[in-house]
TrEMBL record:
Cofactor: FAD
Molecular function terms from GO: flavin adenine dinucleotide binding; NAD(P)H dehydrogenase (quinone) activity; oxidoreductase activity, acting on a sulfur group of donors, NAD(P) as acceptor
SUPFAM superfamilies according to UniProt: FAD/NAD(P)-binding domain, FAD/NAD-linked reductases, dimerisation (C-terminal) domain
This protein's name: Dihydrolipoamide dehydrogenase
Family statement: Belongs to the class-I pyridine nucleotide-disulfide oxidoreductase family.
Domain of life: Bacteria
Ranges of residues in domain Pyridine nucleotide-disulphide oxidoreductase dimerisation: 349-456
Length: 481
């Protein structure tokens, strides 16, 4: 409902609505679509591009560039298959054109027009709280019964001396490049850094990754090591324990000085040292919404310290993934619109890093499971080297580890081909509290990479079956009968 704003001293339009969503990225779009389709009045604010980070600067462009790089890599590595290896002639601008086309192809799904078609009132303005239930956005003042903050995050720019004096790239500018960097220095060995490092080396750039602590440090170190070994073998120089402390030089010739006293020279610099939630200039204090540098403080129902205001996705404290933002949106819709006691948990949330080989995780890592469950933990493993499909593809690097407590998986870690696809079975198993017997009993088509999951479950039961004297005696007894 819109009313004349002049009465409250505001000269623009004053809108009253059931739900105001701030931010049209993965989280905000899911929340707005869900609510609008239930017939609720929704206003959606977006200050930048519809689709947010994932579509414009994150998942989609990075995976599109990775796909281009995979083609280049395949040309160099055909020898074992009898295909003469050839050094590809790479048109970096054309690879980036594939990135642009991919974004453009998906954009209509996230567009203003589509959301207006769903009945959402889309306003392309920056939102700022002026009261606990009211947000100003350009000429609009919006009062809402419920407000969802889905403002996402931006690349963290640390206060490294000299950094602001050199042209540096982030995920927001990298995909605008049309000329291949000659020597890309990446600060940060997390998923952004490693995915883009491998893509660039495959596309013919020299690449150095400087990681202050441990590369891919959020993942199981044994599995992360498999990725790092491959990425290094492809030519990326990965320096761990190399905290960037100072940057010197200028466009085309810059140097990063690390705490260990070394200097690393390159032509371009990519910052990939994490994310900062987009919460500045939002008037959150005015609205009584508590937050810190990691995001808005929320309870299990994703409600902030202001009971009308929810926070989802990268704007909330917790994991930063597109599927988490969408999952959060579902929790908020169920809670705010249906009044259901929905709660968000990370217990069953998977994530994957799309290097080659891929690295995927759901639930507890071995280290975390050991701390939580102590001696009750059993870890079963299976290797891609023992998977027939992986052999046919000559993709035998990698393994799966499943953390099991009292017959149920509490975590799974996979490094290897299509780990991001393979982790999904374990995400389902953990979410649905399935037993290992359910996985062992599943019939998987042969030959598939997915058989590795069944094999891991088999590893759990093998010692129980084949090394159990009572079972052996019973089988002998049945045979005598
Ligand atoms: C390079 C890279 C690769 C990634 N790859 C993956 C991947 O493969 N898989 C995966 O799951 N995740 C990936 N991520 C993470 C993923 O992009 C984010 O977790 C996801 O986009 C978060 O969604 P969101 O809705 O919380 O925020 P966003 O998508 O960032 O959307 C927030 C929106 O809010 C708008 N906004 C901000 N403040 C305001 C305001 N005050 N008023 C109005 N609008 C505002 C912004 O303009 C933005 O459009 C990647 C990230 C990066 C950087
Ligand atoms: N495949 C995916 O799902 C995917 C891909 C990319 C990004 N993401 C999301 O985006 C988030 C951000 O990714 P990211 O890789 O930017 O951040 P990250 O926090 O995961 O990794 C950043 C790395 O930079 C290092 N670092 C920090 N300061 C440094 C310095 N001064 N010098 C050297 N190293 C330094 C840290 O030790 C850390 O290892 C991830 O947490 C993830 O949630 C997901």
């Amino acid at each position: 409902m819109a009313r004349d704003g002049a009465r409250d001293g505001h000269l623009g339009e004053h809108i009253e609505t059931d739900l105001l969503v701030i931010g049209a990225g993965s989280g905000g779009l899911s929340a707005a679509a869900g609510a609008a389709q239930l017939g609720v009045g929704v206003v959606l604010l977006e200050a930048g591009r519809m689709g947010g980070d994932c579509l414009n600067f994150g998942c989609v462009p990075s995976k599109a560039l990775i796909a281009a790089a995979r083609h280049a890599h395949a040309m160099r590595t055909g020898a074992p298959f009898g295909v003469a290896p050839a050094e590809p002639r790479i048109d970096y601008a054309a690879a980036m054109e594939h990135v642009r086309r991919t974004i453009a192809g998906i954009a209509p799904h996230d567009s203003q027009e589509r959301f207006e078609g769903l009945g959402v009132r889309v306003i392309r303005e920056h939102g700022r709280f002026i009261a606990h239930d009211t947000v100003d956005a350009g000429p609009f003042r919006i009062t809402a019964r419920r407000i969802v903050v889905a403002t996402g995050s931006a690349p963290l720019v640390p206060p490294i001396p000299g950094l602001r004096d050199v042209p540096y790239l982030t995920n927001e500018s990298l995909f605008d490049l049309r000329e291949r960097p000659e020597h890309l220095i990446v600060i940060g060995g997390g998923p952004v850094g490693l995915e883009m490092a491998q893509a660039h080396v495959r596309l013919g750039a020299r690449v150095t990754v400087l990681e202050g602590v441990e590369a891919l440090g959020q993942d199981d170190p044994e599995l992360a090591a498999v990725v790092l070994e491959r990425v290094r073998a492809e030519g990326v120089e990965i320096v761990e324990g190399a905290m960037a402390e100072r940057v010197t030089g200028g466009a085309g010739a810059l140097s990063v000085h690390t705490r260990d006293g070394r200097r690393h020279d390159g032509s371009h610099l990519l910052l990939a040292v994490g994310r900062a939630p987009n919460l500045a200039d939002m008037g959150l204090e005015t609205a009584g919404v508590a937050f810190d540098r990691t995001g808005i403080e929320v309870n299990a129902g994703l409600r902030s310290t202001n009971r009308r205001v929810y926070a989802i996705g990268d704007a909330a404290q917790g994991l930063n993934f597109t599927h988490v933002a969408s999952y959060h949106a579902g929790v908020v819709v169920r809670r705010a619109l249906f009044g259901l006691p929905a709660r968000a948990t990370n217990r069953h949330i998977p994530w994957a890093t799309y290097t080659d080989p891929e690295l995927a995780q759901v639930g507890l890592t071995e280290r975390a499971a050991r701390v939580r469950h102590g001696d009750r933990l059993e870890v079963v493993r299976a290797r891609f080297a023992d998977n027939d499909r992986a052999r046919t593809e000559a993709e035998t690097d990698g393994l799966i580890k499943v953390m099991v407590v009292r017959g149920r998986p509490v975590g799974a870690s996979i490094v290897g081909p299509q780990a991001g696809e393979l982790i999904q079975l374990w995400a389902l198993a953990i979410a649905s509290r399935l037993k290992m017997s359910a996985i062992a009993g599943m019939v998987a088509p042969y030959p598939t990479l997915g058989e590795i999951s069944k094999r891991a479950a088999g590893e759990y039961f093998s010692p129980r079956l084949f090394e159990n004297d009572a079972i052996r005696r019973y089988v002998r007894f049945v045979q005598r009968l």
